[in-house]
Amino acid sequence: MTILVTGGTGFVGTNLIKRLEEKDYSFASFSSKDYNLLKQQHVEYLLNTTEPDTIIHLAASVGGIGANQKNPAKFMFDNLCMGMNLIDGAYRHGSCKHFIMLGTVCSYPKFTPVPFRESDIWNGYPEETNAPYGIAKKTLAELGFAYDRQYGFEFSNLVPTNLYGPHDNFDLESSHVIPAIIRKVEQAKREGSDSITLWGTGQASRDFLFVDDLVDALVSAVELPLPPEPINIGSGKEVKICELSKIIAKKMNYDGEIVYNSDRPDGQPRRCLDISKAKYFLDFEPKTSLDKGLDKTIEYAEHHIFER
Question: I need a labelling partner for 219 at 20 to 30 A (CA). Which of 147, 197, 264, 281 fits?
Answer without folding.
Answer: 147
